[in-house]
Every structure is written in structure tokens, then in C-alpha cells.
Sequence to fold (170 residues):
Amino acid sequence: MNARDMCSMHYRRWYRSVGRTSGATRGLPPMERFMRMVAKTDECWLWTGPQNLAGYGSFGVGRGSKRNAHRWLWEQINGRASPKLHLDHLCRNRLCVRPEHMELVTHSENIRRGARSTYQSDKTQCVHGHPYDEVNTAWYRGTRYCRTCKREATKQRRDRLRQAGTLSNR
Fold:
């Protein structure tokens, strides 16, 4: 026998379903449990509960199942959304769960709007200091690159091949 006069298997089962939950939220409706973990500010509704590794709020919906907090609340208000669509945080705050700050978009649109894409598009020059302008910028498969750097890299590669004797002098 273990704690609470249960064998280890039954104690683990009890602990997973009821034991971890604090007495203050046990038995409350899901929406009330949810709203106890939200701090409303003038702009955003900030999630104060647990977070997943990506920094989004995580909400337990029963029997060990967890959902992204912002998606759970949005679906409670607006109905089930296609799993192929993503909720984009218009406020750019991952802990915000305010439904007015969410918009359903495709994966590619969510990536395009994301912080990493603006990080790259805000750059005005390459790592070697050459400007990203009309003349010096080329695009390949959706990625821009510096023509000056590409030209110098190609010249260095050809010089190495010539020295090795695998490229003829033309």
C-alpha cells in the first residue's frame, strides 16, 4: 500500500486525474478555471498559467490532455477551427489569449507574418556590408542573396578548382 491507502498503480491514476489539481479549481467549469489564469490588461489578456516549450500558454482540458490556451479560448467562442489553420497573434504576444487579437490564417501566412521573417526583411545589407538594393540583390527560391558576395565566392571556388587542375582555363 502507498499513500492514501492505494496501491502504486491506483495512486498514480488518482494523482494524474485529481491529485495534482489544487482544491481551489477542482470541480469548476473549464471556462472559470481558464479565466482564473488570465490577467487582463488594457491591451492584452495575459496567460499566467503553465507554458509550453515554445512560450505559448498551455491549458489542461482533462485526463492529461493539454491544448494551447489561446486556441482553446478562441474555439470556445468561435467554434472549432480547421486543424490546418493557425491562429496568428496580431499583437505579437505569445501569452495573449484575447480572442480579438487572433486571426485564423494558413501556415505560410503565419510564417510570413512572424518575427523571424521581419527580422530578415529588415536587414539593409549582407553580413559583409554590401547593400541590399535593386542592383546588388538577387532572389532564388524565395530567398534573397548578395550578388557581390556570390560573385566573390564563385571566383574563389573557380580559383581553387584551377589550382587543383580540375577546371580548365577559359
User: Anything to note?
Assistant: The two ends are 86 Å apart (CA to CA). The chain has a mean pLDDT of 86. DSSP finds six helices and eight strands in the chain. The beta strands are 38-40, 45-47, 58-62, 65-68, 86-89, 102-105, 137-140, 143-146.
